[in-house]
Write a structure and sequence with these properties.
Number of strands: 11
Structural class: alpha/beta
Number of helices: 15
Distance between the termini: 40 Å
Strand content: 5-15%
Largest sheet: 5 strands, parallel
Helix content: 40-55%
Order of helices and strands: HHHHEHEHEHEHEEEHHEEHHEHEHH
Length: 465
Amino acid sequence: MNTPRQRPGSSFALLLHGLAYAGIGTSNLLICAHLSDQGLIRAYHELALLVFVILGAVFGRFSLISRWHIGRAGSIGTGVVLNWLAVATGLVFLGFITRQTGVFERRVILIWLATTPLLFVAAHHVARYVFFRWFPNSMRSRRAVIVFLNDDSRRLAETFRDLDLPRFHLLGFFEDRTAERTGAPVGGLVLGRCQDVVAYVNANTVDVVFVVLPLEGADRAMSVVSALGDTTASIYFVPASPLFRMDHLQFAEVGGMPVFTVSETPFFGADGLLKRMMDIVFALILLAMLAPVFAVVATAVLISSGRPILFTQPRYGLDGREIAVHKFRTMHVAEVGALVNQATRNDPRVTPLGAFLRRTSIDELPQFWNVLRGEMSLVGPRPHAVSHNETYRGLVSQYMLRHKVKPGLTGLAQINGLRGETARVEDMQRRVEYDLRYIRSWSPGLDIYIILRTIALVFRDRAAY
């Protein structure tokens, strides 16, 4: 069972956290400017006001008191880092398009961008120390019981031990079946039969009741929930089903009806527009910057191995539709038929120039045209040859879900060492797992992080050949 997500904080808590992050970011900016040769000119005050508003709006949802777990997917700490990268990139881009970058001293901005996330981390540790050292009772443990004893309720009990906030003190379980059928409880005793729970809750000031039962026992669970209406305890229903232990399951609402999302694209509405705008802006800038490289590489391919200069291959794009993906030709042959063999280390089909182009990913540069046309994205699951898709969709679970988004020039799998040949089915399975993790946890900051990591890996990725 996954760790339960915390309920969104109160409006007051969101405001306090937002003000804290905004205060740290703007204070650091003003201090850096004050210590510079420029001093606190008016431009820094205007920038500080903009930063205060942005940080307050973006970071209020990130608690300074809960555990951060920086580096863990979906954690608060990772969210802080990725959102800071997104804010920093957005501010720099805004400065370029408004032609204000020359107003500020470059060293001041760089120091501020580098030190602010460090101050966020320091503030997090200070806030946790102060909170738990001086106000240990301000977030008291909630007295809890669990109705029905099964594997999922035992997992829930184990989860309580690991929770930092909120805190639960498990008093025990209620179950009608014998211990021979249910197994031993974890973290508490069997306090009685299910019919005893209401009297126990009222007599022992229980704060929370968790009802854990399979979906086929919904009628029985509802009778317990109905009986608990005669108490003041908070009631949670925990469906005991493998379906609800899926990492990517999300709660949603359609026309007022609650639904669980198993598979969905993150790029609907405003997020899709933002993703597309990022692709267009970056593709235009990079195509303009790399035009001389295109000319040099095209000439080198023509001289070294003749025509064609570009290699075009059909691959699956968004929703499994075929697209034509372009690359600089790196092989003596151009396989586009029903059978396409993956490139291997020291592959005799690869030309000497092609080996360099593949190792540095320069052969992928023509795909910026695919990005500009809307067929691909800068970041997303890498597209595979059609024949490979047809092979692996029958071998790897949920393989086609990676096509819920546009394919990308680089992706989360590639920066985690899963680039190049997939000699075993297990290699493709791991790549798909990273692709699905990217889809579930997408944010603008994550895209920027992947782009920066890709640039850093270009000349030292041993998996590229």
